[in-house]
Specification:
By secondary structure, the chain is of the alpha+beta class. The chain contains four helices and six strands; from the N terminus they run H-H-H-E-E-H-E-E-E-E. It has a six-stranded antiparallel sheet.
Amino acid sequence: MISRFTMTGILLATIGFSGLLLACGGEDAPEAPSAPAAQSQPAREVHKSAEPVMPPIPSARPSNVEAELAVKIEMPDFYPADAPVFPGTAPSKVFVEGDKINIMFGSQASVEDVLGFLNEELPRLGWDNHLVQRMSNIVTLEGRKGDRDLTIVLTQFSGDQENPTLIAIAVSAD
């Protein structure tokens, strides 16, 4: 004789298997509606627009680095007095990350002119200007003053005198 527990298991398995067969169904394609049925339903048009539903929000930010450097802002009060500023430039972007103050300038002067200025200015401001590296059209300077660090990156876009020189400075707060 089959126990009641086994009989319940077989019954549940049969119901589950039947449900699975019904859910999966066959692979027959659905029949097209008959002509009268198709005519009685209102025609539905599906419009898929190539344009987004909401137009992009215009950005107030400049579209490229040259345009960003053309925007000038005031020098922040927290920029250290012993950090260099190339004459005739105003910052274009300032942000603080940890104990570093990061500031970007743009200048029409050449990379060599800016580098010459910095090689004289950094020692005058008390920075140990011991490391200058060149990689293609990028020049980096690293300086130290006590336990503070200074990193400067110079590059001229497209190596063309018509394009601005980027001066990016990261300096530890004093």
